[in-house]
């Protein structure tokens, strides 16, 4: 009997049919991957499973018994735990207190902290997680906080555990630790649901997979390993995508952007590089190698200790991002959602904010025709799933919010240098393809494009040249015809580390 069964689940929001008659099953000891474009309905299904939303129709069954959850507490009581994208924890409490929140052991009417720590320490050891139960959550990394959530699920004896894009903020090493834990939970016979946009990790972890498109279930594959990548992509996006990177050679003009000897408190070694007009320069390195810091320095977001930036032979004043933007240099940051999302503003307003800053459109409340046109063009080009341009951005799925913020930077007038930090994180494969096309178009128009990515196949796929960083220094440069995984990893990893040790997802 399937441990978990969705039967004809339907959920409608104003203007959006998020789920339309979705049925599938997942078994104990199985990792079931959920795949689909941004806005396909994956998170909504998880929220129904976790008792956050009630379905408009359909049934949810656990071990053959129908459940109607009215709250998250109902779901937990029935043995369901959800590891959400936005983790839920109390930062000021300890690991033990968070794990046992609401169920802390007492002695003589007082919380028995020693017992709580002992119980949690035993459980952490059992699932192979190395964490101090007395540490405060505020002191832990995202990966460690996630481990706390998983430990909590296990201690609540969850039979079904669902993960919503758990690796999006993890390093390769942290991802490996998470995978080991998920595999252990599978071996214990739990039913696991796993959402991700990274096909490589889905292939590594999932036994079966279910593909969603526009709120409908397209197919469930019982043995994911037997399904070719192209088939999965075509089912997700509803069309064939031959070469997702869509690389086309471009003519390169003279050097337009030059960074000379840039350094700061965090990047003490002077860093220099140049980019030609029409060129896409990729930056690869492990988390913490200094790629984002270098770009923030170039952009003026962090204070420089020395060095200069030249654009078309003229020095760009180091007077903060506004000076860089005025010169035509734009940086789309890694944590797009935190930086600059106007949650209660519409999709159109979020896209057009930089154009307004330039005074190209009318006043704040004026729905200028140009703005509407620009918003609609991006909604179409990036396949942003929204009922219309007036929808509040906070009501969009996570990946679609990312696309809107990305569109804002792509719409920047007077663009000469476009710097994209992890532009496709959390973004579905169809939209990735559209973003790569935009990158090509921006470069082909004579601009410089710099792309930072931790996904090695992505930078190798789109860049004309690759710069690799390690420990705050440029460790090497590879022209496109010499850039491959082995060469890039050899430059990115600490001296002597075998390239195979770093799984690149
Ligand atoms: N509270 C809400 N109000 C209005 N619309 C919503 C709400 N929650 C979700 N939606 C819409 O429902 C659809 C499905 O969203 P959902 O978050 O389930 O997608 P997803 O497949 O998880 O996408 P992603 O990969 O981007 O996380 C989207 O069009 C989204 O905008």
From TrEMBL:
<dbReference type="Pfam" id="PF00005">
    <property type="entry name" value="ABC_tran"/>
</dbReference>
<keyword id="KW-1278">Translocase</keyword>
<keyword id="KW-0762">Sugar transport</keyword>
<dbReference type="InterPro" id="IPR050107">
    <property type="entry name" value="ABC_carbohydrate_import_ATPase"/>
</dbReference>
<keyword id="KW-0997">Cell inner membrane</keyword>
<keyword id="KW-0677">Repeat</keyword>
<keyword id="KW-0472">Membrane</keyword>
<dbReference type="InterPro" id="IPR017871">
    <property type="entry name" value="ABC_transporter-like_CS"/>
</dbReference>
<dbReference type="InterPro" id="IPR003439">
    <property type="entry name" value="ABC_transporter-like_ATP-bd"/>
</dbReference>
<feature type="domain" description="ABC transporter">
    <location>
        <begin position="4"/>
        <end position="239"/>
    </location>
</feature>
<protein>
    <submittedName>
        <fullName>L-arabinose ABC transporter ATP-binding protein AraG</fullName>
    </submittedName>
</protein>
<keyword id="KW-1003">Cell membrane</keyword>
<dbReference type="InterPro" id="IPR003593">
    <property type="entry name" value="AAA+_ATPase"/>
</dbReference>
<keyword id="KW-0067">ATP-binding</keyword>
<keyword id="KW-0813">Transport</keyword>
<feature type="domain" description="ABC transporter">
    <location>
        <begin position="239"/>
        <end position="496"/>
    </location>
</feature>
<dbReference type="InterPro" id="IPR027417">
    <property type="entry name" value="P-loop_NTPase"/>
</dbReference>
<dbReference type="GO" id="GO:0005524">
    <property type="term" value="F:ATP binding"/>
</dbReference>
<keyword id="KW-0547">Nucleotide-binding</keyword>
